[in-house]
From TrEMBL, chain B:
CDD domains: ABC_NikE_OppD_transporters
Protein name: ABC transporter ATP-binding protein
Pfam family, one: oligo_HPY
Lipoprotein keyword on record: no
Record keywords: ATP-binding, Nucleotide-binding, Transport
UniProt lineage: Bacteria, Bacillati, Bacillota, Bacilli, Bacillales
Gene Ontology molecular function: any one: ATP binding
SMART domains xrefs: AAA
Native species: Paenibacillus vini
Annotated ABC transporter domain residues: 15-265
Record PANTHER family: D,D-DIPEPTIDE TRANSPORT ATP-BINDING PROTEIN DDPF-RELATED, TRANSPORT ATP-BINDING PROTEIN
Keyword ATP-binding: yes
Family: Belongs to the ABC transporter superfamily.
SUPFAM superfamilies, A to Z: P-loop containing nucleoside triphosphate hydrolases (SSF52540)
């Protein structure tokens, strides 16, 4: 796919935090692209840096953290170079975001209608009356009953699923090109999750918006994503098409992760393989691959030298010395046969 | 009912819930009069046989955690009986409950809040042994080592505090503590929900291993169907305070009979993108 088409391109992003014990690097060398209209999932465990990446794109990082390196190109502009008014015209307009707990992202003392109108008037330049009509139309779209009445409700009166529907209505009312959804259904029951995910995808497809879905749930990834970025300890370790990733995962971490999920369609006697150990503390000071201590294939080189994310197939990227060695070995073999 | 491990031998249930109810009053007004009840558990019958794992699934608010609390005596039922080994334990005095503690233990969801942060792991594990006077004081140290080894923690863990451990290790401490009194029934209330995916499998495998080794009986409560399927022999599905379906694991997953069970199964994401198209039809809102 050509460089010109991509909607979002994150390039060698590095984010550092100030903590009591000095500076630490939360996200390091993160690169990926989102094409218009596609769903890209970033999957990783807690602390892997997936939310930090999302917040960096929105320029919503807290005061104790900063982007040290990299570019975030959106529609041809580097978001990191924009001034605050410039960023405000992108945020909520071109890129919208929904969060895990809609209760904390809605203002508890303002009615749903007020909050929706406010956003629409600000971003779309509509009059109060127009914004009111738009808001009602959006609430109807996300399947909320009696949208006129819903406008006068306050967030506490709504269930978690209804609140997330309101957030989706609000996020999509300004016709963004990209919707960033950070664990949008983690706080919801599984039956509600299925409804919300489908709704989000349908509405985005209809509006031509791309989705950047941040999640820890590989089941959700399998259901929703076109492409997947796997993060581990602050880095991207693998990126591939969703079918390819689930059928032929290359990074040992991705392989381990896929083997360790209990599936409802598994055979009864199937044993789960778990990844031994845990994510190392203060992984940013590890010179080599950050998965070395848990990896069944680790070599001396892995512990000493950091592998780069490199092409290991068509539109498939992996950060692993051993995968690269295997691929190169194959290629050399093919060459010698030729 | 027959022994799930050996169908030829009929079994006495280790635990039986009979018409169990727990209503919480809803109070209103200045005199705080009761205007209504929340029926958290509303007439539940359930049996667990020795050596089996009964999975209890349901969504938040369905009453599954209330059942856990009722069984271990953290709540008193409004109505109904809880028979442990044939004896009604639902209204025991705190003193009587102490004796039962060594038979009946619980592992909680959140290992962060269920361990005293000011005690070293060695003391956390030794405490129940001392309280229940399980063994002479001189043997306790060796027993703590044995427990640590049992759950796969290094021996030097005993001098460390809970915050020095990762979530998965902390859950191992929680399990070691529950097992220290050699209970017959362990209630696992969402034991892996707070853990990362790669750690969940470690804990699920540990629970299965320990069951084989020690002949434990589990009530395994969770909302994630995958985990429940992996560890359970039988499953009970709970919906708004009632059990709507029980059955053997493969029967429930192959032929769910109750409408709600079907809804739950259809909504649970499967980690296989090839299966999504045939499932799409259901997910309309």
């Amino acid at each position: 796919m050509s460089e010109m088409n991509e909607l979002l391109k994150v390039d060698h992003l590095r984010v550092a935090f100030d903590s009591d014990r000095g500076g630490t690097v939360g996200v390091d060398d993160v690169s990926f692209r989102v094409m218009p209209g596609e769903t890209l999932a970033i999957v990783g465990e807690s602390g892997s840096g997936k939310s930090v990446t999302a917040l960096s794109i929105m320029r919503l990082l807290g005061g104790n953290s900063r982007v040290e390196e990299g570019r975030i190109m959106f529609d041809g502009r580097d978001l990191l170079e924009l001034d605050d008014p410039g960023m405000r015209s992108i945020r909520g307009n071109q890129i919208s975001m929904i969060f895990q707990e809609p209760m904390t992202s809605l203002n508890p003392v303002l009615s749903i209608g007020f909050q929706m109108r406010e956003a629409i008037m600000l971003h779309m330049g509509q009059s109060k009356k127009e914004a009111h009509a738009t808001a009602i139309r959006m609430l109807e779209k996300v399947g909320l009953p009696r949208p006129e009445k819903m406008m006068n409700e306050y967030p506490f009166a709504l269930s978690g699923g209804m609140r997330q529907r309101v957030m989706i209505a609000m996020a999509l009312s300004c016709k963004p090109k990209l919707l960033i959804a950070d664990e949008p259904t983690t706080a919801l029951d599984v039956t509600v999750q299925a409804q919300i995910m489908t709704l989000m995808q349908e509405l985005c497809r209809e509006a031509g918006a791309a989705i950047l879905l941040i999640t820890h749930d590989l089941g959700v990834v399998a259901e929703m994503a076109d492409r997947v970025v796997v993060m581990y300890a602050g880095q991207v370790v693998e990126e591939a098409d969703v079918f390819e990733l689930f059928e032929q995962p290359k990074h040992p971490y991705t392989q381990g992760l896929l083997k360790s999920i209990p599936r409802i369609d598994a055979a009864n006697d199937e044993q789960l393989e778990s990844i031994p150990g845990a994510v190392p503390a203060r992984y940013e000071s590890i010179p080599g691959c950050r998965f070395t201590n848990r990896c069944p294939y680790a070599t001396d080189r892995c512990a000493k030298e950091m592998p780069l994310l490199s092409a290991t197939g068509e539109d498939h990227f992996t950060r692993c010395w051993e995968v690269r060695r295997a691929e190169n070995g194959l290629r050399e073999e093919e060459d010698s046969h030729a | 009912m027959h022994n799930p491990k050996d169908p030829a031998v009929p079994l006495q249930p280790l635990l039986a819930l009979e018409n169990l109810k727990k209503y919480y009053p809803v109070r209103k007004g200045i005199i705080n009069h009761t205007v209504d009840h929340v029926k958290a558990v509303d007439g539940v019958d359930l049996t667990i046989y020795p050596g089996e794992t009964l999975g209890l699934v349901g969504e938040s608010g369905s009453g599954k955690s209330t059942i856990a609390k009722l069984i271990v005596g953290l709540e008193t039922p409004t109505e109904g009986r809880i028979l442990f080994d044939g004896q009604d334990i639902s209204r025991l005095s705190p003193r009587e409950m102490i004796g039962l503690r060594s038979e009946l233990q619980i592992v909680f969801q959140d290992p962060y809040s269920s361990l005293n942060p000011r005690k070293r792991v060695g003391d956390l594990l030794a405490e129940p042994l001392k309280v229940h006077r399980i063994m002479p004081a001189k043997d306790i140290s060796r027993e703590v080592d044995r427990l640590l080894e049992l759950v796969g923690l290094p021996k030097n863990s005993r001098g460390r505090y809970p915050h020095e451990f990762s979530g998965g290790q902390r859950q191992r401490v929680g399990i070691a503590r529950a097992l220290s009194l050699k209970p017959r029934l362990v209630v696992c209330d969402e034991p892996v929900s707070a853990l990362d995916v790669s750690i969940q499998a470690q804990i699920l495998n540990l629970l299965k291993e320990l069951q084989r080794e020690l002949g434990l009986t589990y009530l395994f409560i969770a909302h994630g169907l995958g985990a429940v399927k992996y560890v359970s022999d039988r499953i009970a599905v709970m919906y708004s305070g009632k059990i709507v379906e029980t059955g053997k694991v493969d029967e429930i997953f192959r032929e769910p009979k109750h409408e709600y069970t079907r809804t739950l199964l259809d909504a649970s994401p499967i980690a296989d993108p090839r299966q999504r198209n045939k499932r799409r039809a259901f997910h309309s809102h």
